[in-house]
């Protein structure tokens, strides 16, 4: 059925404007030209005549360089096409248009990574066009190859997709390798969005379809309309209409990493944005809620196997159900695994004809094992001749015969000996012996029998009491796979608590060495007894940390809970606290500080949104950030943590935290949310940026005593260099420093609703989301002092 919009005159005027009538100017790139990826971020590029687009190398974090096309006039340099998303190249790599007309990407050793598949010979030059299309042309200016013909995840105005053309979503917002969703105009004319049998490219389940069988082309025209046409040019389906001018706004349609096909617009200039923020704004999204749209009996869904997907204004959020943890805390899309572990047992020439539900080919045996391991429904994987078939129970019609071939990889649960320690059997023997002695003596005299009976009863009662006393605490936290240490073990490990690492009002931390674990150093936190509070604090900290697993959190290894001896055993962080690192004699490098700031943000994002239960830390400060062997930031001290239920966004509690980092809502006795951590992070981020404490009574100028006030004043007056007088490295990166200051000011807004979420903070730090000018954070002096 044709779209009714085609009857509108204005739609005819703009939609069917021939692309050929739009003037295309270009700067020709001659044969023999090349670009080199430079580690100092000064790599050159080939730009379009208007400067809107550029072709060249983009650095992707610390992972390497991406050969890409991007919007060059906007701050975030949004990438719209890439050649080597699955294989980033190091510095020194080169893209070259050879004298023979080959267009290729070689790494620093000269190894061929990618090349344009040109049809025939005769390439005379290349050009970056104002449409965002990079072309190789012959002497008659006919295109031999163009990037529009090999799209990745994005299409631009003036671009057309033909039958069998595909878009593949990138894996994450910052990982440009091929992801788990595919947009395709099929040969039968149906336009669909699929989940894929990741990491294979074959389609799995369609969660969006136009249900047409005459579709011929998907057109994204110069006026910003995206639609499906038949072979005769009639409009079959309007995918996305446009309400924003393409004259003043850039447009793109991207199959996002979260599986949504999203049409977005970005103001071209500040003057044309009419007050709009300088960022991409979504116009339409298909589907509107991917969590509810993806169905089916097979596939990993929007969030990976065994996970749960929930949707909000910022997109889908992935988390694990109770009893499961993330397979990889740094990659939530890999899904969740059960808290107990499995292993595989092989059976040669074995198979079952029933129970199969997914097949993959061609793959190797290790891949087959891992895929079955990650899927809790998979009970057996049959691997044979490069094909992996997963089967769920009940298995039916099994057979074992040399003619079958291949092997069955049977997943079995490992025995778990590391949970609650058994009470030694010797105690049962002791009790039996005592009862036997008492029975023998009973035959001597009545008086003696009575005395011995009472004595025996008291001893047996004492043994039972001590056993109950030891067992009961384990039940409190028996659902966590943590190692239980005895008090004697930790006493020996710490050499009778000899080396003190630090102390606070509620705990003293000692260094220890676990001999059975190859001399592994640990930090043993001994809680100081406080009547009526200590048990609750112990349970709160173990509950909070015991279920978390993230590279930017200190890992809890085990516990001791024997009467008054209540201790927590953590990884030992060899480089101490962030406070010592920041405020010592030697100033850490700006690169190190950036990585630390991002690591803390990712750790808080995990606590707030990605772990099984939302956790508000409540005491973010430099002393509670530890640094591991590689100076990666690890958040510690969950003793004050406040857990929120899945459907809970705020809570009320007594004031917590540390003076100077406490959000205003604590002082005003208002309900608190995760935004209290955002405020504390903002103060901490300022300290990281400037390597000074948030309050210095001995400052040279009274206006410089409170760091947050001073930083905002300098930012407002465009005078940030005053804060970096002794930091030459920062002075050379003043634009990025300014961005970080802006992020910090957003975080310390007095109104919690103005503070960004930690997810947005992390995206701003990564450069994925634009940072707009922050408002005055108002008067927060009272909360600082």
TrEMBL record:
Its main location: membrane. Belongs to the protein kinase superfamily. Ser/Thr protein kinase family. Residues 495-769 form the Protein kinase domain. It catalyses: L-seryl-[protein] + ATP = O-phospho-L-seryl-[protein] + ADP + H(+); L-threonyl-[protein] + ATP = O-phospho-L-threonyl-[protein] + ADP + H(+). Residues 1-23 form the signal peptide. PANTHER family: G-TYPE LECTIN S-RECEPTOR-LIKE SERINE/THREONINE-PROTEIN KINASE SD2-5, G-TYPE LECTIN S-RECEPTOR-LIKE SERINE_THREONINE-PROTEIN KINASE LECRK1. CDD domains: B_lectin. The chain crosses the membrane at residues 434-460. It is a single-pass type I membrane protein. One of its GO terms (molecular function) is ATP binding. This is Receptor-like serine/threonine-protein kinase. Its EC number is 2.7.11.1. It is an enzyme of class 2 (transferase). ATP binds at residue 525. Pfam families: B_lectin, Pkinase. GO terms for cellular component: membrane. It is found in: Membrane. PROSITE patterns: BULB_LECTIN, PROTEIN_KINASE_ATP, PROTEIN_KINASE_DOM, PROTEIN_KINASE_ST. Keywords: ATP-binding, Disulfide bond, EGF-like domain, Glycoprotein, Kinase, Lectin, Membrane, Nucleotide-binding, Receptor, Serine/threonine-protein kinase, Signal, Transferase, Transmembrane, Transmembrane helix. Residues 20-149 form the Bulb-type lectin domain. It comes from Pyrus ussuriensis x Pyrus communis.
């Amino acid at each position: 059925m044709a779209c009714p919009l085609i009857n509108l005159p204005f739609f005819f005027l703009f939609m069917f404007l021939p692309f050929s009538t739009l003037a295309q100017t270009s700067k020709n790139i001659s044969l023999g030209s090349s670009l080199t990826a430079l580690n100092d971020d000064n790599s050159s590029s080939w730009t379009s005549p208007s400067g809107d687009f550029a072709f060249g190398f983009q650095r992707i974090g610390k992972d390497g360089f991406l050969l890409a096309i991007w919007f060059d006039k906007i701050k975030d340099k949004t990438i719209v096409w890439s050649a080597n998303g699955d294989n980033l190249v190091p510095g020194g790599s080169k893209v070259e248009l050879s004298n023979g007309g080959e267009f290729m990407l070689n790494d620093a050793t000269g190894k061929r990574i990618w090349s344009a598949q040109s049809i025939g010979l005769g390439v005379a030059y290349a050009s970056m066009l104002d449409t965002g299309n990079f072309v190789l042309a012959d002497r008659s200016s006919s295109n031999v190859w163009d990037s529009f013909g090999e799209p990745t995840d994005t299409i631009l105005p003036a671009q057309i997709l033909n039958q069998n053309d595909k878009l593949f979503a990138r894996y994450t917002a910052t990982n440009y390798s091929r992801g788990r969703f595919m947009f395709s105009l099929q040969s039968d004319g149906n336009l669909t969005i699929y989940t894929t049998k990741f990491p294979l490219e074959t389609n799995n389940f369609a969660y969006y379809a136009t249900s047409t069988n005459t579709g011929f082309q998907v057109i994204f025209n110069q006026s910003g309309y995206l639609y499906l046409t038949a072979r005769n040019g009639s409009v079959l389906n309007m995918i996305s209409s446009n309400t924003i001018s393409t004259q003043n706004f850039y447009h793109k349609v991207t199959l996002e990493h979260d599986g949504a096909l999203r049409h977005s617009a970005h103001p071209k200039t500040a003057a044309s944005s009419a007050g709009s923020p300088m960022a991409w704004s979504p116009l339409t999204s298909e589907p509107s809620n991917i969590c509810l749209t993806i169905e089916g009996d097979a596939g990993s869904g929007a969030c990976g196997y065994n996970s749960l997907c929930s949707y909000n204004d910022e997109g889908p959020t992935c988390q694990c159900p109770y009893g499961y943890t993330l397979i990889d805390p740094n990659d939530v899309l890999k899904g969740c695994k059960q808290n107990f572990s499995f292993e595989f047992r092989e059976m040669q020439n074995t198979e079952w004809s029933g129970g199969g539900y997914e097949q993959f080919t061609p793959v190797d045996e290790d891949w087959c094992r891992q895929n079955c391991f990650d899927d809790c429904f998979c009970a057996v994987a049959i691997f044979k001749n490069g094909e992996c078939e997963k089967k769920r129970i009940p298995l039916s019609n099994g057979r074992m015969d040399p003619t079958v071939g291949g092997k069955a990889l049977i997943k079995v649960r490992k025995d778990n000996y590391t949970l609650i320690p058994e009470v030694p059997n010797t105690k049962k023997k002791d009790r039996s012996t005592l009862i036997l002695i008492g029975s023998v003596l009973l035959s001597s005299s009545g008086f003696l029998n009575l005395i011995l009976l009472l004595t025996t009863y008291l001893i047996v009662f004492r043994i039972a009491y001590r056993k109950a006393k030891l067992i009961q605490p384990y039940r409190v936290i028996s659902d966590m796979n943590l190692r239980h240490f005895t008090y004697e073990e930790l006493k020996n490990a710490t050499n009778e608590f000899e080396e003190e690492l630090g102390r606070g009002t509620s705990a003293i931390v000692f260094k220890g060495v676990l001999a059975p674990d190859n001399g592994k150093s640990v930090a043993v936190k001994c809680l100081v007894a406080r009547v009526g509070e200590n048990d609750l604090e112990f349970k709160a900290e173990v509950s909070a940390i015991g279920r978390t697993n993230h590279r930017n959190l200190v890992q809890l290894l085990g516990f001791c809970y024997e009467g008054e001896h209540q201790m927590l055993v953590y990884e030992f962080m060899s480089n101490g606290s962030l406070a010592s690192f920041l405020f010592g004699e030697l100033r850490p490098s700006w690169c190190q500080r950036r990585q630390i700031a991002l690591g803390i943000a990712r750790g808080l994002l995990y606590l707030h949104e990605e772990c099984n239960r939302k956790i508000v830390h409540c005491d973010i400060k430099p002393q509670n950030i530890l640094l591991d062997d590689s100076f990666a930031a690890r958040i510690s001290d969950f003793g004050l943590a406040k857990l929120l239920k899945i459907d809970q966004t705020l809570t009320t509690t007594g004031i917590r935290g540390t003076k100077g980092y406490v959000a205003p809502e604590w002082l005003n006795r208002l309900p608190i949310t995760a935004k209290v951590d955002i405020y504390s992070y903002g103060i901490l981020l300022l300290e990281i940026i400037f390597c000074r404490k948030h309050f210095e009574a001995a400052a040279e100028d009274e206006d410089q005593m409170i760091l947050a006030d001073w930083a905002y004043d300098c930012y407002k007056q465009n005078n940030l260099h005053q804060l970096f007088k002794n930091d030459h490295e920062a002075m050379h990166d003043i634009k990025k420093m300014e961005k970080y200051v802006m992020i910090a000011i957003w975080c310390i807004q007095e109104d919690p609703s103005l503070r960004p979420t930690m997810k947005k903070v992390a995206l701003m730090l990564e450069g994925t989301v634009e940072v707009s000018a922050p408002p005055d954070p108002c008067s927060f002096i009272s909360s600082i002092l």
